[in-house]
Amino acid sequence: MTPKEGHKVPNPSTQSAPLRSLLFVPGDSEKKMTKAQGTQASGLILDLEDSVSADRTDTARRLVREYLLGHADRKRQQVWVRINALSTAMALPDLAAIVAGAPDGIMLPKVGSAQDVVALDHYLTALEQREGLALGSIRILPVVTETPEAMFTLNSYKNCSSRLAGLTWGAEDLSAALGAASNRVVGGEYEFTYQLARSLCLLGAHAAGVQAIETISTNFRDHEALLSEVRASRRAGFDGKMAIHPDQIDTINAGFAPSDLELAQARAIVQAFESAKLGAGAVQLDGRMLDKPHLVQALRMLASSAEANHG
Ligand code: COA
Ligand code: MG
Question: What is the pTM of this model?
Answer without folding.
Answer: 0.91
